[in-house]
Amino acid sequence: MEEHGVALKTVEEIKAAIEAAVPGARVTMVPNASPSGQHSLLLEPAHALAVAKFLRDDAELALDFLSNVTGVDWLDKEITEKVKVTKQVPKEVDGPDGKQVQMVDETVEEQRKHVEPGYLEAVYHFFSMKKKSAAAEPVVLRMRTKNRTDQVELPSFTPIWRSADFQEREIFDLYGIVFTGHPDLRRLLMWEGFKDHPMRKDYVEPDDFEYEPTAHDKVLQRATEHKSRE
Amino acid sequence: MAVEQELKIELGKQGVFVTTIEELYNWGRRNSVWPMQFGLACCAIEMIATTMARYDLARFGAEVFRPSPRQADLMIISGTVTKKMAPQVVRLYNQMAEPKYVIAMGACAISGGPFKQGYNVLKGIDRYIPVDVHIPGCPPRPEALLQAFITLQKKIDEQSLTGENRPRHLDAEAQGEFPVPEQGEHDLVPPSNPGVWPVQIK
């Protein structure tokens, strides 16, 4: 007899199942260190559609219910590292015929900075109605774009789960991820002709500030900026 | 010319009814204000409650909610006006026939309310159209809407049919149409109508 409401496969098991079923698909586990421990799986856009089909149609997983789609904006990260570098340094050394300049190895600690490019991320939450997994944790999938500016395409899951339709449109509207294969990719909340993506972290709001009686923090900052422009 | 109150009462006792055209005209107008049937957000639920049996807006002659702006006298802005919706609200107001009045109901309609710091909510409909009565509240109770409606009735009653403060529909020069804002690339264009905003305090 089938058991109901029990935790189904673990994230590791799902990852293994995907890699066994879809040739060439690489799945990375994104661990979640919080007490909930809700780990997720990062898919490559190239194999995402095949993986999605497998997850929906597989008899054991049967992820037939896409409950939520959302976006995340990850900015460019500047990372400072301390690296030990060995360099050749000229040094005066006592030689057989007086002082001599010789090249000597010396280890110096250096600070190196590099910029990790940012990306946009789409996050999908799945349950299985067939397996009655609603009480269990969702299966979380992620996909990342190549960057935040010109390569922002991700495959759409709307052909596989119809419920992705409006949610992907919302992400397209607010984050600017372009879902290829979406049947009707238009802005959902903002109007046509609107150029910005308001949920991006570098979004600049229109300056329509007006009097606030108790301005503080960010609001106070906005108020001062607005006044300086007047 | 106004009739003296005492004389009026005295004549009334004798069975003579005296009035002025202005009084009669305003009495008629204020007691059959037809609101437009449209709601924008949760305040609309309170507005609907106001019209139903418990609060009964019909007592004040405003029970006929018209589903067309052409037949309405009063626009109750009941709820959040988003920047996507604002042009349609202004257009509906333009389509109403004079005389027309506006009640801005609730925190959002008068100032943007809890969404004031957001990017997509208009910070008060009075940026584009003249508002006659503002009601604060989130949402205002039906009593507050009744109070606003009585305030509007008093306002209509006090309008004189001639002179400086005559209603717009009796003033050939007055304009009853207000520019509909365009939805621009980043914000509404223009961000407010300088003809009505900022509101002049008399």
Please describe what this structure looks like.
The complex is a heterodimer of chains A (230) and B (202). Chain A has helices at residues 11-21, 48-57, 164-174, 217-229, and strands at 27-30, 40-43, 65-74, 77-95, 98-116, 119-127, 139-144, 153-155, 178-180. Chain A is an alpha/beta fold and 230 residues long. In chain A, strands 1-2-7-6-3 form a five-stranded mixed beta sheet, with helices on one face. Chain A has a two-stranded antiparallel sheet with strand order 4-5. Chain A is flat. The N and C termini of chain A lie far apart (73 Å). With 202 residues, chain B is α/β, with parallel strands linked by helices. In chain B, 30% of the residues lie in helices and 8% in strands. Chain B is built from six helices and five strands, in the order H-H-H-E-H-E-H-E-H-E-E. The A-B interface holds A 189-196, 198, 203, 205-206, 208, 210, 212, 218-219, 222 and B 83-84, 116-117, 119-120, 123, 183-187, 191.
Task: For the record, give the distance between the C-alpha atoms at the N and C termini of chain B, rounded to a whole number.
Answer: 26 Å
Strand order of the largest sheet of chain A: 1-2-7-6-3
Output the structural class of chain B: alpha/beta
Question: What is the tally of beta strands of chain A?
Answer: 9
> What proportion of the residues of chain A is helical, as a percent range?
10-25%
Q: Which band does the percent of strand residues of chain B land in?
A: 5-15%
> H/E series of chain A, N to C?
HEEHEEEEEEHEH
Q: What is Rg of chain A? A: 26 Å
Q: Which sequence of strands runs across the widest sheet of chain B?
A: 1-2-3
Helix content of chain B: 25-40%
Number of helices of chain B: 6
How would you classify the quaternary structure?
Answer: heterodimer
Q: Distance between termini of chain A?
A: 73 Å
Rg over CA atoms of chain B: 19 Å
How many helices of chain A? The count is 4
SSE order of chain B, one letter for each helix or strand: HHHEHEHEHEE
Let me know the number of strands of chain B: 5
Q: Given the C-alpha coordinates, what overall shape of chain B results?
A: globular
